[in-house]
Write a structure and sequence with these properties.
Chain C: The complex is composed of two ATP-binding proteins (UgpC), two transmembrane proteins (UgpA and UgpE) and a solute-binding protein (UgpB). Chain C: InterPro entries: MetI-like (IPR000515), MetI-like_sf (IPR035906). Chain C: Belongs to the binding-protein-dependent transport system permease family. The complex is a heterotrimer of chains A (292), B (356) and C (284). With 356 residues, chain B is an alpha+beta fold. Chain B is built from eight helices and 20 strands. Chain B is 24% helix and 33% strand. The longest helix of chain B has 18 residues. Chain C is mostly helical and 284 residues long. In chain C, helix 3 crosses helix 14. Classes of the chains: A mainly alpha (292), B alpha+beta (356), C mainly alpha (284). At the B-C interface, loops of B face loops of C.
Chain lengths: 292, 356, 284
Amino acid sequence: MKRVQFEHSAVPYLFIAPQILIISIFFLWPAAQALYQSFLLEDAFGMSSQFVWFRNFEDVLTSSSWTRSAIFTVVFSVLVSVLSIAISLFLAVRADEVIRGAKSYKTLLMWGYAIAPPVAGLLGIMMFNPLMGDLYKAFNSFGFEFNHIENANDAAFIVILIAVWKQVSVNFIFFLSGLQGIPKSVQEAATLDCKSPERRFWTITFPLLAPTTFFLLVINLTYAFFETFGIIDVSTKGAPGGSTATLVYKVYVDGFLGADMGGSAAQSVLLMIMVSVLTVFQFRFIERKVHY
Amino acid sequence: MATVTLNQAQKTYPNGFKAIHGIDLKIEHGEFTVLVGPSGCGKSTLLRMIAGLEGISDGEIIIDDKVVNTVAPADRDIAMVFQNYALYPHMNNYDNMAYGLKNRGYSKAEIDAKVREAARILQLEDHLERKPRQLSGGQRQRVAMGRAIVRQPKVFLFDEPLSNLDAKLRVDMRLEIKNLQQRLGITSVYVTHDQVEAMTLADRLIVMNGGVAEQIGTPIDIYEKPASQFVAGFIGSPAMNFLKGKVSDDKKHVTVGDGVMLDLDHDVEAGRDVTVGIRPEHLELLKDGEGRINAGVRMVESLGAETLAYLDFGANADNVTLRLQGTHTFGKGEKLSLSVPASKIHLFDIESGQRI
Amino acid sequence: MYQSKWRIFTNHTILVLGSLFMILPVWIAFASSTHTREYIFQNGLQFLPGGEFFTNYGAILFDAEATKGRVTALEMLFNSMVLGLGFAIGKVIISMMAAYAIVYFRFKLAVPLFWIIFSTLLLPLEVRIVPSYEVVANLGLLNTYTGLILPLIASATGTFFFRQFYRSVPDELLEAARLDGAGPIRFFIDILVPLSVTMIAAIFIIMFVVGWNQYLWPLLMTTDDQLYTIVIGIKQVYNSLYEGGQIPQFPKAFALTIMASVPPVLVVVIFQRMFVKGLVETEK
C-alpha cells in the first residue's frame, strides 16, 4: 500500500463510481439473475416460473450431454494447453538463440492474438473443407478417411488444432520474455559446463522457466474454457451431436438457442464455481511461485 | 596446466566494428596473466574468445598445441569465473559445483570427492546444501571459483570476478585468488579494469587499449618502462604527470614549462618536441630554491601514510601531482621546489605517444 | 555466445517452419480470395493470388448484396472501429479512475469495492450471457452502440493493470505535489496521467484488439444488421455459404476474413512493443 494517501471524502467515490456503476448494472445484476434463475424452472412459454431449489443442478449434473460436454471441455483444455505450450516453448527457445533475423521471426510469430476466434474457426474449417480444403486432401492422401461431419474425434481434432494455432503466439511472447529474464552469464556458464544444447535446456533453462510455465498453464486453461466459443461456433458448431461443445458453448446453445433458462443458468453457476477455483489457484499458488 | 597462444587473433563484429586488432600472445604453463585496460578496450572480448563464447574472425587460439578456433567451449578444458558469479539459481551449491562434472560422465563418488575437496579449500563445507541466493556476494564468488576448480581444467579464466564486491572484500579475495592459483598451478587469464589488481596479481600483464595490446610484460617492467603514453598514464596511481617539452640542442636536456631544464640520462634527437612523463612519487621535495621545478600548491590531500599535493606549474598552470610519504602540510599557493632524477624521466613522441 | 553450425541451422529451420505454420492459413485465405468462385470450386484452395482482387473486395466493400445482407463490409468495418475504439477508450478511462481511487485514497468502502471489482474476474461474459442480454434488453439498449460497448467494459483487467502501475510510482512524487499545493484531482491530471502515457498506450492497443475481435456479445445483441461488426459478418457469410444451390462464395468469405483480420494484426505488428507490454501486464 502506498505510504502516502489522500484523505478525502468525495473524490475517490467520484473516481470509482463509473466502474462500480457499470459493474453493478452489467455484472452484478446479471450474475445475481443467473444465480436466481438457476433455482427456477420456467414453463415452456416463459409465463410462470417455479422455485425448484437444486433440481436444475441435479438435472444438469446427471444429464449425459452435460457430462459429455464436461469431459470434452477438460480433455480439450488440457490438450490445447499442453500442445500450445510445448510448440511455443520449442519456438521461443530457438528464437531466443538466433542472432540473424531475431526480430523478424518474432514479428512473424507473435500476431496470432490479433485474429478473432471466429476468423480462426473459419480459416480452419475451410482448410478441412471436403470440396477444396488442402488439409482435408492431405490427410486423405495418407489413407486417412477424414470425416469431421460424422466422426467426433476428427471434429475434435480440427477444433483443437485451431485453438492451438491461435494460442501459440501468446505463449510464445511470454516464453520469450521469460527466457530473456534468465541472465546471459548463467547461460554462458552452462555452455562451459555442458556441451549438449538439449541437456542444457532440460537441466538449466526449463527449471528456470517453471514459474512462467505454470502461469501459462492457468492462462491457457482459462483460454480454452472461455475464449474458444468463437472457434467452435464458426467451425463445428459443437457437431457431431454436441461432442465438440465446450461447457461454455453448451450454455449458449441451451440458454439462447434452446430457451432452457433454468438449466443454462445452472450451468453458468457451475462454470462460475470452476473459474473461481482456477482464479484462486492462480493468485494463491502462482504468486508464490519459486523465486530465485 | 597448459600453454595458451594467440596468433594474430582478430575479431570484427557483423556491423563492422573491429573489437580486436591482431593480438599475439604466449602464456606459459602455470602463468598468471592479467588483461587490463579501460572499458571498451576489448579485454573481456579477448577472454571470451579464448573461452569460445565469442567467435574469432581471424587468427588462431591455441591451447596446448591444439588450435581450438572451432572447438566448442565445453570441450576446450577451460573453466571460467564470471563477474556476477553466474551460479545456477535453482540448484544448491553442491549441485552448482557438480554440474560440470556430471555432464562429463564422472561417477558419483568421484564427483563427491572433488566437490568436497574444493569446498574444503574454499571454506564452503557448511554451505553446500544452501542455494546461491542464501549466500553473501563473497561466498557466491567462492562457489563460482569452486565450480571452476573441481574441473581441474587446463586454463582458468576470470572475467572481472571482484568488481561486484565491496572494497575490503576485494582486497581479501585478491589474495585468496593469488594463493589459490599458486597452489594449484593452473594457467590463468584474468581480466580487470583495476590497475591495482592487475599489478598485484599478474605474473605478466597485458595493457590493452582500443582492441590492441599496447604492452606485454611483467608489472614492474611496465611500471618502470611504459611503452606508450597510454600505458604510462594507465598504470600507477595517482597517474603520471605529463608536460610538454622540447629537447635541447645538446641532446642531453629537455626544457619544460618556462624554460625549466631537466637532465636526461641518454641522448635524444636535438630540438625534438616531446611529452615528458614524471611519476608523482618520483618528484623529490627540496628546500626552497634548490630544485629546478618550482610550482604553487593548489590543493592537498592527506591520506595519513602519504600526502598528495596538486600543484600549478609554469605559465599555463599545468597540473602536476606530487606524492610524498608521511604527512605534510602546505599552505595554499605555497611555492614548492622539486627535482627529479634523470633516470625517472620518461619521454614520449608527441604524436604517436610511443616511448622514446 | 557459442553455437555449433548445426544448431544454428536447425534453429532457423524450426523458426521458418513455425512461421509458415502461422502464416500459411492466412496467406491461403488471401490468395483464394482473389479468384472467382468457380475457380476455387474446381481447383480447391490456392497458394497463388489470382486476378479478382479488386472485383471481389470491391464487391463486398460496396455492394451489400455480396455480404448476404443489407450491409456492406465497409459499414461493418466502421462498426468494428467504433466498437474497438469505444471499448478501448472506455476501458482506459474507467480503469484509470477506479485504480486511482483504490491506490491513492483511504476511504470507507475501499476494501469491499475492491473485492467487487475483483469478482468480475471470476465470471467472464460468456458465462453470464443470457441474463446480461436480458438486462440490456430491458434497458432498451439492444442494437445500440452503447449496449454493445458498455457491458464489455465491466471487467477488472484494466483496473488491476493500472493499480499495479500506480503502486510502482514513487511516493515522493505525491509528497512533492502536495507541497506544491496540488489537490487529488490536480495531481491526477497534471502528474499521474502524463506519467502513465506509455501504460495507457499499451492498454489501449490491446483493448482495441480485444474490442474489435468481440464475437459472442455482438452476436447476441445486434439483430439489426446495420450494426454488424465485421467479425459478425464472418458468421453470416459462414451460414450462407452453401445456400441457394449455387457455387459457394468461398472467395468472398475469405476476403471478409482478411478484412476482419488486417486492422488488428496491423495494429499489433506496428505497435509490437506496446502490445507485448500490454499483454504481459494484463495477464498477470
